Amino acid sequence: METTVKVPRRASTQQTATYPLWSRAFWGAFGITMRPYLFFISGVAAVVGMSFIDKPEPIRLWLGFLPLFLSCGLGQALTDCTQTDTDAISSPYRPLVQGVITPRQVFGVSLTGLTLCTLVLALLNPRIILFGVFAVSGLMTYTWFKRRWWGGPFWNSWIVALLPILGRLVDPSYKPAFTAPPWEVHTAAFLLAIGAIFFGYMNFVVAGYLKDISADRATGYATFPVVFGWVPTAIYSDLTAILAASCTVGVMILFGSWTVPGLIAFSGAITLSLRAQLTIHKIRDEELAHGPIAHVVRVYLLLGLAIILTLQPTWAILAAIFYLSFEVVLKIRPERTQV
């Protein structure tokens, strides 16, 4: 079956007034640009790292969680500033494309927000500053890598994979053990947890490119689907899904604690992952890709929660509230195909 080619959808050329930075309308549009369901992506990655803290202090965890929770949305808004060309075709509903807010405004607010988040985290542990600088630098260079088929998924994913490290660093006594033997149980489990976040998010990026093939092709973005087509991209997605699940299983095996909450989250992830991957292979229509992509995000969250609840099963109620809140936020997003 051939890929369905869509006529590029272009944004309206009608002049639109730009909202003042201090107006309520601006902040509403900026909130849409951040895509609040993305907060849960960075939130779960951060808590994966926090779950490795032996004696977590609730106040310190919450102070670390809040800025990390916001980081993915702020980062997405930052990268959107340099992708209005392809977004004008694939996502004409976005405020940046419509012109009601400007790239300069969004860039300034996003960078300020990310800087403030890093400074708050630095109060908990000054070592976090270095990782925060790496993450922001990565975000600012992402679009260059997205234009190259070999760069986009990896570049986006290593930035998100820093979040478990930042979450772990909320404990000031922790020093990243880069020289520790990888076969030591705690070190190996933490590396696998980072791998689960890395590959889980990579699948989100790879699958996400499927809904933008026509727009990316028209604007010169040589993403993997543009260069190689739908079927190789589906296989690429399969591989990242398998690696994410395998890393999660590795963490559960190393800790040897098959908790009921962890198993429930993992079972849900595997069920949805099979559904998502089969659907990606079945469809060839960019406008239908948002369905399996949403499932890929759910799988990413559930794999992260499986790790968290393996290490911290008493967090089960909070984990359930967290996941249900994600579903509510995803449900009320202003554009159904926005994933």
Q: What general form does the structure show?
A: globular
Low-pLDDT segments: 1-15
What is the number of E strands? Answer: 0
CATH architecture: Orthogonal Bundle
- What's the structural domain tally? 1
For the sheet with most strands, the description reads: none
- In whole angstroms, the N-to-C terminal distance is 25 Å
Provide mean pLDDT, rounded.
92
CATH class: Mainly Alpha
The CATH topology comes to Farnesyl Diphosphate Synthase
Helix content: 55-70%
Which sequence of SSEs, written as H and E, runs from N to C? HHHHHHHHHHHHHHHHH
Radius of gyration: 20 Å
Given the structure, what is the number of helices? 17
Instruction: Label the structural class.
Output: mainly alpha
- Please state roughly what percent of the residues sit in beta strands, choosing from under 5%, 5-15%, 15-25%, 25-35%, 35-45% or over 45%: under 5%
In short:
This protein has 339 residues and is mainly alpha-helical.
Describe this structure in words.
The structure is a single chain. With 339 residues, the protein is mainly α. It has a single domain, classed as Farnesyl Diphosphate Synthase. It contains 17 helices and no strands.
Kindly list the characteristics that best describe this protein.
339 residues; mainly alpha; Farnesyl Diphosphate Synthase; globular; disordered N terminus
Layout of strands and helices, then pairs:
Elements lengths: L23 H11 L4 H12 L7 H23 L3 H7 L4 H4 L4 H22 L3 H13 L1 H5 L5 H9 L1 H7 L16 H24 L4 H6 L5 H5 L1 H26 L4 H23 L7 H22 L4 H16 L8
Helix pairs in contact: 2-3, 2-10, 2-11, 2-16, 3-6, 6-7, 7-9, 9-11, 11-14, 11-16, 14-15, 14-16, 15-16
